[in-house]
Every structure is written in structure tokens, then in C-alpha cells.
Amino acid sequence: MAKHSPAPFRGLGTSPARDTGQSRVKAVLGPTNTGKTHLAIERLCAHSSGMMGFPLRLLAREVYEKVVAIKGPEQVALITGEERIEPKNARWLLCTMEAMPMGRDVAFVGLDEIQLCADRERGHIFTDRLLHARGREETMFLGAATMEPLIKALVPGVEIVSRPRFSTLSYAGAKKLSRIPPRSAIVAFSAEQVYAVAEMLRRFRGGAAVVMGALSPETRNRQVALYQAGEVDYLVATDAIGMGLNLDITHVAFAGLSKFDGVRQRRLTPAEMAQIAGRAGRHQRDGTFGTLAGGAHEAEFADEEIYAIEEHRFPPITRLFWREAGPRFDSLATLIADLEEPPERVELIPAPQAIDLAVLKRLSEDSAVTDTLTSPGMLRRFWDVCRLPDFRQQGAETHARFVERLWQELAHGPLASDHAPRAIAQLDNTSGDIDTLQGRIAAIRSWAYICQRRDWVLAQEEMAERARAVEARLSDALHGRLTERFVNRRTAVLMRKLGPDAGLLPVRLEDDTVLVEEEAIGTLAGFRFHVDPSTRLADRKLLLAAAEKHLPALIAARARDLTTKITAGKITAGENTGLTLESGAILWEGEALAKLVATRRLLAPHLTPSVLLDPMPSAERNGLIAALQGWLGECLKPLAPLARLEAASLEAQAGPELRALLIRLVESGGMVPRAGSGIERLDKAQRERLRHLGVKAGALDLFVPSMLKASAQSAWAALHGRAKIESMPVLIPAPRKGVLPFYRLLGAQALRIDRAEALLREAHGRRVAARNRPFMLDPAPALRMGLSTRAYAHLLRLAGFRAIMPRMLGETVSGPPAPVVWRWQPPRFETAASPEPAPNGGAFAALHQLMARQLVAG
């Protein structure tokens, strides 16, 4: 029965514990937060050499960094399945339990979380270390008090040290997610539930860090650091949180009390509940635990469970899982038989079939694989390949196919030189969502494990470094995706600072961005606060409350700065400084500061402050309005010609006829049609006064030529809420609707009235020279302006000119046609444009044809 085991009974493996007679074995047992690990680190560093085994790679890394800070990097090694940092003269080793070099002679050995001997998946590894891992001078087991009876039974002479918890742990009942206090951890038992809870916390509390077993150790560390740094106040995790993570948690809320353990869905044991709940309260600070209320789950503690957790009283563990740690490699059948052989001690029970044994048995059915197992050495190598961890968690069948492909090359030596680099390069892709990145990280962890074996890959150190670098990049990307999805930093800042009392939040202005502890909550456009458009609806009230409390002081400072710039002439009319006159209002950065209200004087409007200035202190508001009034005066300076007309209309000697005409000119912006203007009723003195005021009396219109400037027209348009006028071209297409000031509509074209009057003045000059006899007109000046012959004829007709068409030449007569001549009679000042001549007949059609021929001939 014990033909291949020197141990006195089956179940203690192949190598008995080393015992020099001076080695002391101690078990430090107790609940969480008792300082067990801290004590072990002190004992490790107190010896000349030592080794500690941990259940997780991240715990080994955490303790490694602590020991390095004490002993220096050249003296400390980190050994895990996926990573090896092993200086040549390292004397202190921090390892995962599976990666512990059992043949190493060290003075101290420590085993953490020893109660995992009862774990279905990995318990046989922990049991083997419990039975055989010994330090030359001291051995220390760390774990739960439920292990005490079995440790006493299996390790003769062991010293039991009980450690009390530093703080109390009490039940706080069920709470809704919205009532969970800050610095809490919410524990769920599926990825879907973790994501759902984290999404709700992002919406209502600014977000949460996420910790799951499926994350890479680097990503878990980054997420834990996010929580520990206070960037978020909540942690959402699976039961992975219960394994040695020392966090600043005050409350643990269970989203459920059952989980799938790989075989069935079952309720957590009280010890498992306590392991998770014990994360609440660190050192001397008390902690609480409870459940989430309102969910569709069975999160309801029984009274006896609450008592057991609060008092740390649990049934002792009665059986530990065991598997032969030193099987024979005589044949494949012998290897499988040894791995399945039951122990002889009643304290031990056979371990459930682990995935490595399942892969071994699955591949033993493949003749292509078994044909390669020609020696004990090859069989040992094959077993090492089968023990490749299933990081992807895809099950024995899928994992066996991966191992089979790997063995096809390893059976003949190391992997091909391009195999590992190609596989690593294919995984070096940081795009994709959370699930995609998790899958790549699991795959690269497999290759990181493979690349740690010197006899499996060529250029082992380079390949291992490449795999670690890709895992680091993927972990960074996954951390970024988790943070992007589950953390709203702005809301987290607001809620973490003072919760609903946002009035006390520190707010500052950087350019136009309003910041709360360096998080942008909106912009200040002019004097109006705009909440960041990406803000969720639930956050808007909180952000507005913070802004309304603090913005008056910021607005007042901005108002003083603007007033100073206007007064000093740094912001003047016509410059692109953000201050504009549009739509009957003064705008700054697109927001109205004051509206123009008409008074009895059309060109001197009154400014009414906008409601945006209401939060501003009265002194700053009044000073700003006064400065804006002065700025408005500068803007309206191009309307000085109209201002002179308005002032003249108030003179007593103007007379009613002139006063009425001046008022009409001011109200219309400096232009009125001559028809109905009443200019005929003015005497010579009044006409002269009108001329001195800059008003030109044309054949069709009375207008102020200085108002033809684009600046004057732009000021007039702004005063009346119209579109800004950039220029005043001579000729433009006639608008489909409306009337253009200072333009004469001539069919499809509109001619500026000063040029229209110039053409009519020339025509009247020809008329006077002809002494009212028929006369000819040269169309060249009109054509040079771009005016069509039809539009020119239209203009002449409006002014009273009539064309006299020549007789048509007889059929027997040849020679040029006789020219068109014109005659003038006082116009009736038609109010509407005459209809266009018929295309095939009529006097104006003939005139159009004649003038076109003359234009071509000349």
C-alpha cells in the first residue's frame, strides 16, 4: 500500500516533514483583522532566510513589496506561476502556494489562509504544504480557528496561538443601495450582478471600483487603489474580496447569500460569510455587515448566522482534501492510479477531480498523445503540461484541447522559436470591451505561465518579459474600461465631499470652466452657468446647487474685470472681443447682458439688465451697466447723421412740415420715397436746411448719403434686431420677400439708391440739354454697373422717362435702325412696379431688343 511512500501512513505524501529537533511549528489562528499576516512578516524578516506561501498572486506581490522595503530587492524573490523575480542570492521567498519550491532549505516557512485545505479545487495543494512544508527553525500556519482540531491531529507538537479580532463586527440589517454608507463594499456572486450594482452606484453615487476573480492581479490592484485613494467610496466585488485583501472598509453589504461552487448553487456557510464580512473594520475601527434590501435574491441572514459571525464561532473543519503529491511515473496508468488513490487517515478525504487530472485522463484516451509517452521523463514532462492552470475558465474539454496542441510541440523539445512570440503578439491588442479584455488577459496569463518554464520556450527570459508587458498593457486598458464604465468622477467628488450639502463645496473658475476639486461641472458663458451636457439628470440639481452657492462671487469678479476693460478702452465697438450688439440686446459670449428699451428718443435707448446679472452685487451690476451704456454709445456713433436729424426735429424754428419729414427720415433709417414725403411743401429755407443736414433730394428718394456706409447700416440693423450688414454693394439680386433699405427694386435686380440717382441725374442732364425735345441716352454707364437693359428701362420709367420707338424700316430699305429717343414727363410715382413687358411684343420688349443690338454693335 505504501510501496512508493516513505511516510508512515498514506495521505502524508512522498516526502516527510523536515524536523531537525529544533524546528518549532506554530499555528496562529483567528478571525480576520487579527494581525496574523503582519506577525508572520515580522517573523520571516527576523530569520536569516524564509519562505511564505499565499493563496493569491496579488497577496504574494503585496507582501513581496513590503519585504523588499525591509531587506532590499537583491535579497527577496517573488515566485508565482506567471512571474518569477528571483535574484541570485535571494534569501527570502514570497510565493503562491502551488509555486513554493519545496526542496528549498530555509529557516522560516509561513503558510497563509491555511483553512483553504478544505477548498474543493485547491485544497489538496494546501494540505500537502500543511503536512510537508517546514522551516529549519520555525514554521507558522495562519488561518481560521476552525482548523485547530485538524492541525493538532495532523501536526504533532504544534503550538496553537489564538488571536482575537482588533475590532468588533456587528450586524446592521438590510439597506437599500441608496442608503449604503460611504466606504462600503457590496458583494455579489456573478459578474452580471457585479456590473448591475456598479452601474447603479455610478448613477447615484459617482461610481465604484470593481474586484472580481476574473480580473488580472494588476487590474484588481489598480481597482483597489482607486478605492483606497478615495476616488470612489464604494467597492463592488465577488467573494474574492474575502481572501486577504486589507481594505479601508466600514460596511460590507451582501447582494446575495448563495453562489455556484462549480458543482451546484448553494448557500454560503457561516464561515464563508464571516470571511467576507470580516473585511469591514480595520485594526481598531469597528465594522458592520448586512444585506441589500429590495433585490430579487435570498439575502436574509438567519439569527444563528448573525450570532456566529459576530461572535466568531463556527463549526470546526472535519475533513481536509488530499491528493498524492509525489505520484510515480512508471506508466500512465500508474500515474492516474496514484493521483486517484484515497488517503489512509480519517482526517483526509480524496480531493474532487481537479482540472489537471481531468485533462490528463482526457488526453490519455488519445493514441497520438500516449505514443509520445515513451519514458518516465516524458511522462513527468507531460504531467507538468497537464498542470497548466485553466486561467480562461472554459472547462476541462476546451482546456484539454489547448494542452494537447501545446504538447504536440513540447513532446519533441521546446516550442518553435516563433510560436510564443506569435501567440503573445496576437494578444497584444488593447481595443475591445471589458469581456474581450478579460479574455485576452486570461490567455496571456497562460502564456506567462508557459514562458516561466526554461525547458518549454527558447529565449525564456525575453519571452517571459514580453508576456508580462502585454499583461500589464491589457490590465491598464481593462482598468480604464472599468473606470470609464463604472466611475463618474464628478459625481463621486460631489458626493464624497459633503453629500447633499453642496453649498459648502469649493468651486473655482479656470477660463470658462467651473471646477469642483479639478472636476469640471460646467461652463460659465458670459454670466450664465451651463451644466456639463454629459451630466446625468440625477446630478443636475446637485451641480446647480453647488454653482448657485458660489458663482455670485465668481460672477462679480468677472463683472469687475469686464467693466475695467470697457472703461479702459480694451473692449471697443467693432472689435472681435466677445461683446456684441445683436437683436436689440448687448451680448457677451453669446449671452444677453442687457436689452435695449426704446425711449422717446429713438437713437438713445435705455439698457435694462438681464436676469443673468441678478445674482451680482448691486455695485458691480450698476458699474457694468454704466460701462455698457458708454460702449453702446460708441457702437451707435455711425448713426450720428441721424442723430443730427433728430436734434433738428426738436428745434422750434424747424416748422411742422420739416419736423415731420425729419422724424420720418430718422424712423426709416435715413431714406424715404420722394412720393408722399411732403418735400414739395417745404419753402426754400427749409430745403436749404435739409441740404445742410446732409439729406439729398433725389428724383425718386430722399436719403442721407452717409448712411450708405456698411458701419452705419450695421449699427441701424443691430439697433432694430436685424441681421448685421457686412457691406453695401452697388447691385444685388432682388430679394424674394421684404424691402431692402437704400436699394431700389428694379425687377430681378436691386440698385443702390445713390447709383440709381446718379443714372437719373445724367438722364435729366440730357433732357435739359435737349430743351425738353426728344433725346438719346447712352446705356453704357448702366451696363458697366451690371444693370440689365430691362432693369435700366424700368428705372427710367419710374422717373417719368418714356421711350419713343423708331419706325421699322421697310422691306426694300437697308441700313442701321434709327436710335431710340426719350421724352420726359413728371412721374406719378407709382407705388408698385409695373408689370414686365410681354416677351413677344410691347414697347419695352422692342426697347430691350434695340438696346441689346446697340450694345452688341457698339
- In CATH, the architecture of the largest domain is 3-Layer(aba) Sandwich
Q: The CATH topology of the largest domain, please?
A: Rossmann fold
Q: Average pLDDT, to the nearest integer?
A: 83
Distance between the termini: 129 Å
Uncertain ranges: 1-21, 497-504, 830-845, 852-858
Lateral strand order in the biggest sheet: 4-3-5-2-6-7-1-8
Can you identify the CATH superfamily of the largest domain?
A: P-loop containing nucleotide triphosphate hydrolases
Most strands sheet: 8 strands, mixed
Number of helical elements: 27
Number of strands: 34
**Percent of sequence in beta strands:** 15-25%
CATH class of the largest domain: Alpha Beta
Q: What is the domain total for the residues?
A: 5
Tell me what the structure shows:
- There is one protein chain.
- The chain is of the alpha/beta class and 858 residues long.
- Strands 4-3-5-2-6-7-1-8 form an 8-stranded mixed β-sheet, sandwiched between helices.
- The longest helix has 31 residues, at 537-567.
- Helix 5 packs across helix 17 (489-498), helix 14 packs parallel to helix 16 (460-486) and helix 18 (537-567) packs across helix 19 (618-635).
- The chain is elongated.
- The protein contains 27 helices and 34 strands.
- The chain has 5 domains: 1-164 and 315-352, P-loop containing nucleotide triphosphate hydrolases (Rossmann fold, 3-Layer(aba) Sandwich); 169-311, Rossmann fold, CATH 3.40.50; 362-480, no CATH class; 638-728, no CATH class; 753-857, no CATH class.
Concise description?
The chain is an alpha/beta fold and 858 residues long.
